[in-house]
Amino acid sequence: MTDMMSGVPNTEDAENPTASAGLDGLDEQLINQLVSRAKAGGLQLTGEGGVLQQLTKRLLESALDGEITDHLGYDKHDPAGRNTGNSRNGTRNKTVLTDVGPVEITVPRDRNSSFEPKIVAKRQKRLTGVDEMVISLAARGLTTGEISAHLAEVYGAEVSRQTISTITDKVLEGMVEWQNRPLDVVYPVIFIDAIHIKVRDGQVSNRPIYVALAVTCEGRRDILGLWAGDGGEGAKYWLHVLTELKNRGVADVLMVVCDGLTGLPDAITAVWPKTITQTCIVHLLRNSFRYAGRQHWDAIAKALKPVYTAPTEAAAKERFGEFAEAWGAKYPAIVRLWDNAWAEFVPFLAFDPEIRRVICSTNAIESVNARIRRAVKARGHFPNEQAALKCVYMAIMSLDPTGTGRRRWMMRWKPALNAFEIAFDGRLAAGRK
After folding, report:
1. Which of 144, 175, 199, 339 would be 207's cystine partner, CB 3.0–4.6 Å?
2. Per-residue model confidence as pLDDT tens for the chain (433 residues)
3. Cα-flanking dihedrals φ and ψ of residue 194, to 5°?
């Protein structure tokens, strides 16, 4: 309704500039009369033939009459229109899908067929609010069949799956523009991770969708892009992703937080030589449990906690020595895993515990991955790579619609950004210029 009414002039506001906009500018007595008449006539507010549907019809037809009057330059039945070379030529019926269901309207015509309505354009079958609703439902994980059933049940509108797919395809142009937009020169932290989605390409297989989430110099969350890879997650493809980020303007990154993928630290250093690679502690623990029996998981977690909560790197090294002495004989692979990852494990120990919590793991991006998984779960698998990326893109674009999460994120990152400003010798300040 908001989109529809934006094209309808408010006569009262034109006469009284101080009149308030929107619902506050409506005559409350008129609203009460409408409600009273609806109750007296047994009319429903919504549904077929309801008050909102009738009101929508009147508003649209009134706006269209105003548009053709502006187009011709004279009012209906006005003698000024004689011998002007163009005039009204009746109407035609048309059904449009609106936020309150399908509405049949009469569209005025002119003899020269030069009238191009704006509020309901030629061949337009839906108001833009409907398209936005369909895209919103798709972003929340509903399939085309579920969206079609929802529109039929709630609005009594028959919308085919192909039409719904066509509506959601509108996001593809925006996705390409978003994927290639210029980025900031400096980011304090970039979290990188991959989520696996089933794609049917000849046969159904797991395909990685690479996600890069950055913290800006102001403390905002910014998802930098999405990339569909082939086969399993690999450091070679991450090198391609990071190089693309650099080509889009990212000249410096203070820290990249990632899982313990072999070769990934080398790929990061190849793109940004001064960047510190921080291994996700959660991933490191999960990988440790893979080498241990289930009955020993709790004991191993308890023995490793003093290592990653140590006040200094030296203390962590000492605690790890105690762990190796206690468990090394039984699980040498765990000791070897931590030895190999030590250089990428220790950087976060240089910060105080409050800051460690926000940089020691990829939890920041895991919450995004959780939303993506929820959106793709109902679909089972996708017919192609583009369909998978479209679904993931819509899911992340629907994150935090109220902005509450963004404000909470910025407050959480303020102490870390202040510490980074000191620890990285002014590199962060270069990103604010």
Report:
1. 199
2. 334 333 334 433 434 444 444 445 455 665 566 666 666 666 565 556 666 667 667 767 777 777 778 878 878 877 777 777 788 888 888 777 766 667 777 888 888 888 887 767 777 676 666 667 677 777 666 777 777 787 777 666 677 777 777 777 777 888 889 999 999 999 999 999 999 888 887 788 888 999 999 999 988 999 999 998 887 778 889 999 999 999 999 999 999 999 888 889 999 999 999 999 999 999 999 999 999 999 999 999 999 999 999 999 999 999 999 999 999 999 999 999 999 999 999 999 988 887 888 888 888 888 888 888 888 887 778 888 888 888 888 888 888 777 787 888 888 888 888 888 888 888 887 766 6
3. -130, 145
User: What is the β-pairing status of strands 252-258 and 276-279?
Assistant: parallel
Identity (one letter) of the amino acid at 260?
Answer: G
